[in-house]
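Quick illustration, no need to memorize.
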Amino acid sequence: MYEKDGEKYFVVDSHGHFWDASRENWREGREEFAKGWIDCFYGYHQLAPPETHWDYEKFLKPTPEDLERDIFTEGHVDVLIHQSTYLKEWYVNGFNTTEQNAATIEKFGDKIIVNGRFDPREGDAGLKQLEADAKKYNFKGIKVYTAEWNGDSRGWKLTDPACYDFLQAAQELGVKNIHAHKGPTIWPLNKDAFSADDVDHCATAHQGLNFIIHHSAIPRIADICYKAVQEPNVYAGLSVVVGALMHARPKFFAKVMGELLFWVGEDRMLFGGDYNIWTPKWQVEGLVDWQMPDDPAFSDYPRMTTASRKKILGLNAARLYDIPVPAECQLPEVAAEAAEQDPAKPGEQLVAGS
């Protein structure tokens, strides 16, 4: 939880990793790709304030102690949602698997939510694995990585018929949140395989699912803005938007945030710190302090309010994931309504937006 000027913010980090990019995990014959991938991440890492930078060796493989300190002790995060990125073409045990992420639950309990993944190119075997994992880990969300390599294939689309089979299976398993990486590329993946061109068709066809578009499709910000206007089940994930731009590119950050606030709206924007590319502390504190520039060039963008910040930093994600939120962190009208319904329990935890 983060408190500033008498306001308490419940923070849900919707996009975290617990990866293993150590040299021992690089697949023989694919070392250049394993190294190139994590080197690209390390380049993004440099866009944060210098005092938050890690040395390269530490960056390759965070420890549970790093996670605890950076996320929960210092980072103001109440709940972290782990997202998976397998990359087994380059990493022997995978880069960031469901099993790796789930190992943190034993230590951190309900502070951690582990999301699954699927790749429609895996066919029936993939469907069986999805079902087994969903039942084992009680998934509420899935992360998909449409540019991931698989043999000779260099990507797939959300509109592929096989993907629809997996989405249907996920929904039948009780999964309602689909997180899709649509945005900046990481070498050696292809930028076009991260295109958001397939989002609207898929969202229309699966209106019982929520599609959280991580990184908000930057640099093609207009793609997600207009699709979200059209599709009420499309959300903008702010991982990379905040981490890569707020400190290093403040004017561009203001433009991106302005477009998202205008088109997508504060009710469908989710904070993501993208650990451990970046740590969340400076991002959370920066968002709470951030104001749209007092400049005529930005005059037609909405302004952030305390309510905006509470929604974006945690309440929106809490609503999607049915996460209980302390009454003191709720918006005043929500807390008052709940207290009125049950005045005997004014301090009871609420689900955001309920």
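The chain has 14 helices and 13 strands.
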